[in-house]
């Protein structure tokens, strides 16, 4: 592999240290357009326990083969899965115990650190936590200042416990540029605990309190191992006489300096797929200047990601999951299917490919290698007479011509479907096939403008590392009161560029590659801005930092033997098995007409609440986590049937109000119960029961929290005042009935931090809403509220009945669909649970192809466009209904054309649309109205059966649109005026019920032990 090497310092070395192999490549970027792509040398060998040895061998071998001298090398960039593997494998030898100090004031007490982690992970890592003074509101106003003495007291406890890693997490710390609470707290901790690792959460991830904290905890736990590992990366570089910077690749395809990677190893967790995508695209760069789909086909799975025209992978929209831990740091959006070179092919009555595979045993078990299992590799050899893999004769007769045709059609359809799911626009785009299993893919694919299979794809990870760039991200909330959104965006873009240059990018190549602006609902003149800038590495700089070690480490060789995995290692934990509920035989606990809610019930109710939220109401996730924690501590949660209320019962209402953005950062304290206490200081009648204002979203669970035995200890009523979610409180059934002039006063609102608003009386319920909305923005845009009791007789007339039961049944339907691998039929199963086909209908199935949003008067208005498409993959069909899994590559999707769903926080309508070209312009025409408020229009993720809220709509999601007929409480003339299209400014539409309302069946009526 000899080549003429230029005398200047231009060569880049990329090394990928994987769990199985260590790959290396040396390339000259100035020759990237040459036929050999500038690749001077490459190497692949098994990974060693001490990565230093594998890296040394790779570089030494490449230098020898190509005649390279160290003074020609400009940089060494290393990608690794070592850190993420330590977490995924729950390896106690590589993970340290962590203490967590929250700067949160009175908030987040009901969701302690690691509350939603798997038990074994939490026990392995989180050893101590404390909730301290501190935190900011969304506008930068202090919740409270930090207390130096309080922090010092916690340091003494941490010292006593022998913990050497500490996480500091403050409410809204990512936008804290003035108070710098996390930084000040960290300085105190370092002073009190010399040598302790301190991680500030704002340095790890962005807005999203629990998810940012989770990422910071994992980061802190891996720090000691990361330091040693990165030093083991640097040792061979020094030993080989390379005088150049050493970088580590991070999740977004850019580099970290050695010292930064040692402080933030979590930023490397997903760098493998990113390096593979960028490396593959580099190999075909002369042929492409647009978005490209990278399809990496291995032995067992096919991983697909979209590489954007800016050279970076598309990132996941919101949250990711790692080893059961929910995170929100930037990760590439990669989807996988069970298709690879070792996938098992079954040619029986039904022809199936995968998802099971012979995996790494392909050279033993595939027919062409003398085995007895028919695999995709065997079928590909039979289909292509020019392909030389194994012994073709050994596979002869395994498939006839019809079987080969079926095989090719199924593989083609699988790859086309996953590509279509990942596309960012309906137009065709190039598809790049890489990986050892790429031979099984066809040369033409629907949706692909061209299909490319480049040389060198076997070391694409190392190539991606070698060409990695430098970036910076700014994610912040700014006021748009005195400056326009465009002015602020320009300032933030410049800030992002300056940060990228400071990180090592050359100014001339640095530009903004990604930006997003999201107005914040219910918060006056506030928007969230996210900007990413990137550029090429500035090799002229001499100030690149390498990891600086303490003197005691300088002369000694890094010892990595302690991290070697041995059979029967007692330190390594395993995840606890999940309880497998028999859904069909499960019965909730109902005694003497009282439903005692448990964790299974809660999970199903939570799922159902978000679906009934019709896109709004906010995710119930954090509320569900809080209530689950209460149940685990012994709280008793009771639910009663509204039919059983006495006429003189006093039914109170309570819940949360505010911005979903605040809800994900400033987790609830005691504001809901505080509001109840404040109300009854001026309201003489104490309540006997509690009901939710809305069943949709997070508020659907609040009556059970307020009424739990450790709070107000009263039963929750199985019903609510909306039967769904609505944007405003005057859109409630008591206002619809209009039996008395004022329902929602007196009322109380508290922020959980000592601030209280009382409205003793008002002219109307609409005026109550206006007063509270005005105060809301001054109280941190996240509050608890309490409304006065209504009588039992009124509740029986006004409430939308049995909506907790309805949520439970919807959640059970989703669980059934998942268990039977029929999530594509989840809407039909929900309807079966909730009254049958009369109760609603499946309005549409397809893919989101457009989303538009704007902020008006505190509410997010927008429109979601969905194009008809299949929402099922044939792996699912093969598992659930084998008779449907025959070749269906020519079948048409069940739903065709397009619909649009306008929304104001919640979905308003589902309308068929058509497009035509008039005088060269695309004209959109509205057609049939498929569903309209007050009927419920909910969008469900076709991959998991969960609801998708309007803030989560994004291009490419496969969705099911379900319509549920509204309660008759809403279908009177006044009900339609308050909750119908006119109330959303859509006067041109006329409400027509999409079905016949079927009253949800009460769980209490069905399962009461006394009635059997």
Offer a quick outline of the entry:
By secondary structure, the protein is of the alpha+beta class. It is built from 27 helices and 40 strands. A hairpin with a 5-residue loop joins strand 29 and strand 30.
Helix content: 25-40%
**Helical/strand content category:** alpha+beta
Please count the beta strands (DSSP E, at least 2 residues each).
40
Over the alpha carbons, how many angstroms does the gyration radius reach? 30 Å
Give the mean pLDDT: 85
> End-to-end distance, in Å?
82 Å
Q: Quick one: overall form?
A: globular
Largest sheet: 10 strands, mixed
Please report the number of helical segments.
27
Measured by DSSP, the beta-strand proportion falls in 15-25%
Could you name the ranges where pLDDT drops below 50 across 5 or more consecutive residues? 1-7, 545-558, 562-578, 874-891
Topology:
Layout: E1 11-17, E2 21-27, E3 39-46, H1 51-66, E4 73-80, H2 82-88, E5 98-103, H3 119-125, E6 126-132, H4 148-161, E7 165-170, H5 181-192, E8 197-200, H6 209-239, E9 246-249, E10 255-257, H7 258-263, H8 271-283, E11 292-297, E12 302-307, E13 320-322, E14 325-327, E15 334-337, E16 343-347, E17 351-357, H9 362-365, H10 376-383, H11 401-422, E18 429-434, E19 448-452, H12 460-466, E20 470-479, H13 485-502, E21 511-519, E22 526-535, H14 551-554, E23 589-591, E24 594-596, H15 599-612, H16 621-632, E25 638-640, E26 650-658, H17 660-663, H18 671-679, E27 689-692, H19 702-707, E28 716-720, H20 733-737, E29 747-750, E30 756-759, H21 765-776, E31 782-791, H22 792-798, E32 800-801, H23 803-819, H24 826-833, E33 840-856, E34 859-868, H25 874-880, E35 898-904, E36 906-907, E37 909-918, E38 921-932, E39 936-941, E40 958-964, H26 973-979, H27 1003-1007
Parallel strand pairs: 1-4, 4-9, 5-6, 5-7, 7-8, 11-18, 18-19, 25-28, 26-27, 27-28
Antiparallel strand pairs: 1-2, 2-3, 9-10, 11-12, 12-15, 13-14, 16-17, 20-22, 21-22, 23-24, 24-25, 26-31, 28-32, 29-30, 29-31, 33-34, 33-40, 34-35, 35-36, 35-37, 37-38, 39-40
Helix pairs in contact: 1-6, 2-6, 4-5, 8-12, 10-11, 15-16, 15-23, 23-24
């Amino acid at each position: 592999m000899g080549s003429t090497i230029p005398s200047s310092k231009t060569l880049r070395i990329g090394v990928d240290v994987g769990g199985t192999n260590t790959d290396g490549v040396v390339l000259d970027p100035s020759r990237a357009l040459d036929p050999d792509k500038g690749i001077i040398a490459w190497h692949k060998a098994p990974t060693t326990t001490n990565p230093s040895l594998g890296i040394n061998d790779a570089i030494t071998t490449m230098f020898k083969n190509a005649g390279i001298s160290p003074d020609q090398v400009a940089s060494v960039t290393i990608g690794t899965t070592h850190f993420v593997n330590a977490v995924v494998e729950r390896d106690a030898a590589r993970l340290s115990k962590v203490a967590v100090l929250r700067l949160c004031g009175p908030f987040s007490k009901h969701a302690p650190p690691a509350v939603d982690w798997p038990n074994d992970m939490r026990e392995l890592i989180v050893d101590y936590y404390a909730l301290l003074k501190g935190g900011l509101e969304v506008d930068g106003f202090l919740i409270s200042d930090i207390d130096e003495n309080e922090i010092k007291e916690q340091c003494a406890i941490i010292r006593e416990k022998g913990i050497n890693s500490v996480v500091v997490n403050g409410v809204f710390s990512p936008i804290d540029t003035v108070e710098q609470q996390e930084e000040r707290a960290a300085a105190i901790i370092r002073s009190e605990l010399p040598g302790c690792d301190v991680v500030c959460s704002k340095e790890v991830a962005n807005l999203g309190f629990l998810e940012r904290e989770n990422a910071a905890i994992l980061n802190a736990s891996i720090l000691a191992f990361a330091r040693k590992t990165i030093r083991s990366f640097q040792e061979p570089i020094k030993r080989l006489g390379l005088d150049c910077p050493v970088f580590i690749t991070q999740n977004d395809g850019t580099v970290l300096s050695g010292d930064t990677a040692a402080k933030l190893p979590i930023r490397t967790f997903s760098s493998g797929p990113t390096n593979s995508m960028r490396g593959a695209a580099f190999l075909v760069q002369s042929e492409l200047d647009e978005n490209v789909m990278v399809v990496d086909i291995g032995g067992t799975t096919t991983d697909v990601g979209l590489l954007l025209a800016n050279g970076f992978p598309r990132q996941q929209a919101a949250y990711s999951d790692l080893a059961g831990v929910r995170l929100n740091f930037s990760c590439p959006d990669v989807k996988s299917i069970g298709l690879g070179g070792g996938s098992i092919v079954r040619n029986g009555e039904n022809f199936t490919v995968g998802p099971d595979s012979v995996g790494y045993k392909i050279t033993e078990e595939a027919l062409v290698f003398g085995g007895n299992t028919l695999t995709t590799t065997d079928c590909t050899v039979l289909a292509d007479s020019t392909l030389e893999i194994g012994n073709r004769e050994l596979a002869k007769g395994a498939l006839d011509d019809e079987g080969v045709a079926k095989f090719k059609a199924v593989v083609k359809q699988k790859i086309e479907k996953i590509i279509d799911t990942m596309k960012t626009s309906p137009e065709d785009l190039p598809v790049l096939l890489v990986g050892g299993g790429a031979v099984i893919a066809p040369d033409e694919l629907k949706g692909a403008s061209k299909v490319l299979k480049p040389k060198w794809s076997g070391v694409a990870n190392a190539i991606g590392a070698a060409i990695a760039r430098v970036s910076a991200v700014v994610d912040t909330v700014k006021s748009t009161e005195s400056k326009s959104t465009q002015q602020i965006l320009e300032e933030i873009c410049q800030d992002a560029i300056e940060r990228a240059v400071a990180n090592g990018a050359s100014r001339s190549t640095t530009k903004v590659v990604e930006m997003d602006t999201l107005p914040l609902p219910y918060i006056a003149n506030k928007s969230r801005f996210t900007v990413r800038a990137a550029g090429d590495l500035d090799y002229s700089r001499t100030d690149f930092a390498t990891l600086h070690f303490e003197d005691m480490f300088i002369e000694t060789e890094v010892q990595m033997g302690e991290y070697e995995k041995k059979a029967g290692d007692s330190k390594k934990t395993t995840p606890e098995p999940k309880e497998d509920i028999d859904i069909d035989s499960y019965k909730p606990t109902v005694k003497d007409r009282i439903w005692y809610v448990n964790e299974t019930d809660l999970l199903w109710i939570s799922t159902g609440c978000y679906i009934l939220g019709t896109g709004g109401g906010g995710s119930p996730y954090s509320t569900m986590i809080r209530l689950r924690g209460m149940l685990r501590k012994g709280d008793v949660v009771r639910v009663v049937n509204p039919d059983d209320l006495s006429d003189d019962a006093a039914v109170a209402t309570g819940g949360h109000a505010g911005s979903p953005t605040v809800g994900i950062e400033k987790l609830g304290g005691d504001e809901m119960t505080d509001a109840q206490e404040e109300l009854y200081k001026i309201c003489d009648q104490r309540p006997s029961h509690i009901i939710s204002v809305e069943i949709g979203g997070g508020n659907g669970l609040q009556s059970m929290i307020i009424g739990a035995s450790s709070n107000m200890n009263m039963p929750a009523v199985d019903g609510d005042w909306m039967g769904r979610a609505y944007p405003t409180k005057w859109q409630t059934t008591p206002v619809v009935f209009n039996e008395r002039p004022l329902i929602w006063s007196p009322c109380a609102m508290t922020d959980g931090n000592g601030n209280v608003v009382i409205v003793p009386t008002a002219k109307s319920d609409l005026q109550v809403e206006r007063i509270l909305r005005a105060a809301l923005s001054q109280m941190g845009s996240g509050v608890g509220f309490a409304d006065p009791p209504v009588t039992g007789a009124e509740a029986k007339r006004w409430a939308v009945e049995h909506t907790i039961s309805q949520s439970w049944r919807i959640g059970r339907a989703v669980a059934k669909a998942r268990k039977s691998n029929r999530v594509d039929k989840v809407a039909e199963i929900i309807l079966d649970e909730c009254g049958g086909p009369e109760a609603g209908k499946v309005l549409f199935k397809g893919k989101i192809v457009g989303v538009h949003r704007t902020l008006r008067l505190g509410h997010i208005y927008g429109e979601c466009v969905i194009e008809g498409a299949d929402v099922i993959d044939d792996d699912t069909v093969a598992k659930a209904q084998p008779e449907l899994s025959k070749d269906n590559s020519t079948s048409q999707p069940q739903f065709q054309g397009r619909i649009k769903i306008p929304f104001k926080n919640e979905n308003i309508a589902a309308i068929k649309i058509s497009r035509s070209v008039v005088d060269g312009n695309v004209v959109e025409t509205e057609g049939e109205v498929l569903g309209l408020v007050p009927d419920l229009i909910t969008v469900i993720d076709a991959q998991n059966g969960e609801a998708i809220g309007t803030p989560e709509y994004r291009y490419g999601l496969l969705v099911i649109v379900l319509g549920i007929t509204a309660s008759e409480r809403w279908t009177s003339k006044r009900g339609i005026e308050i909750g119908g299209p006119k109330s959303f400014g859509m006067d041109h539409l006329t409400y027509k019920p999409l079905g016949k309302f079927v009253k949800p069946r009460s769980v209490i009526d069905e399962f009461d032990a006394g009635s059997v």
